[in-house]
Amino acid sequence: MNDWTEIKITVPNNYIDAAGDIAQMCVPYGIYIEDYSMLEQEVEEIAHIDLIDEKLLAKDRTKGAVHIYISPEDNPAEAVSFLRERYSAEKIPHEIEMSGCAEEDWINNWKQYFNPIEVGEKLLIRPTWRSEYDPKGRAVLNLDPGLAFGTGGHETTRLVLSVIEKFAGKGKTFLDVGCGSGILSVAALVLGCDSAFGVDIDEMAVKTARENAELNHVDGRFTAVCGDLTDKVIGTYDIIAANIVADAIIMLTKDISRFMKPDTVYIMSGIIDTRRDEVISAVSEYVDVIDIFEENGWVCLRAGCKSV
């Protein structure tokens, strides 16, 4: 594990469970949580002793820490960006520390594992540093994710892209809530949409999204702004995508009809399967869920306007 990166997320104790749930989205192989808030009680219940090591007693009881470990091929840069975005969106105070590999190393080292990815039936995602590839008739999306979430490797992103390609086309407008690297917006434009509007809470993500639009020569049809959910959004759209977290999707959907046309396709992803039924129940008050797609514990929903 010499090349792996340890990511430690420190949060107030009352957020430790939520922080752990979000961190679990980054890794399929488990997390480690430090929580000393109930130290004396738990030691007495489990070990039936009242003598505790002084180093443990000195631990900060007001905070907990979540530890995850990212292999180089899983792109630590994307994982850290994902965590920052999701914690900010959930308004969870947090500090993120990395160890095991210098930042400039893991920003670049993972690139050797990122090869062109076929997504759905129409798209090929090509990392900008891969010059030899065969598109096989697919539309090519050139991508440099930098420090923003969205390479196309994560199940949530692939699920959304597979739905977008079915509905994108000439005359369509696209709204991307939580745009990250801009991968969804750029894909919609590459597949023929007239325009795309992306919004993200992270300024670095917005910058990266604009750069990826330029790479694909669609920047004239793309607008990206820094904002929280739809606070900077106006107008209505033919396709709306939100690849964020369950709670943010529930909050977003309460007001989403303002941005929908009668036949708008609304795509929601970033939902872990344990919250599938809860999210469907919550959003069904405001939209009609038409399709449910699942892959490796992740859920994507396609919805339309609420029937009268």
Summarize the structure.
It contains ten helices and 14 strands. With 308 residues, the chain is an alpha/beta fold.
Describe the structure.
The chain is of the alpha/beta class and 308 residues long. It folds into 2 domains: 5-109, 2-Layer Sandwich (Alpha-Beta Plaits); 155-305, Rossmann fold (3-Layer(aba) Sandwich), CATH 3.40.50.150. Helices cover 30% and strands 30% of the residues. The chain contains 10 helices and 14 strands. It has a 7-stranded mixed β-sheet, with helices on both faces. The longest helix is centred in the first third of the chain and has 14 residues, at 76-89. It is globular, with a radius of gyration of 21 Å.
What's the level 1 CATH class of the largest domain? Alpha Beta
Under CATH, the homologous superfamily of the largest domain reads: Vaccinia Virus protein VP39
The total number of structural domains is 2
Structural class: alpha/beta
Low-confidence stretches: 38-53
| Portion in beta strands | 25-35%
Largest sheet: 7 strands, mixed
CATH architecture of the largest domain: 3-Layer(aba) Sandwich
Computed Rg: 21 Å
Predict the CATH topology of the largest domain. Answer: Rossmann fold
Oligomer classification: single chain
Mean pLDDT across the residues is 82
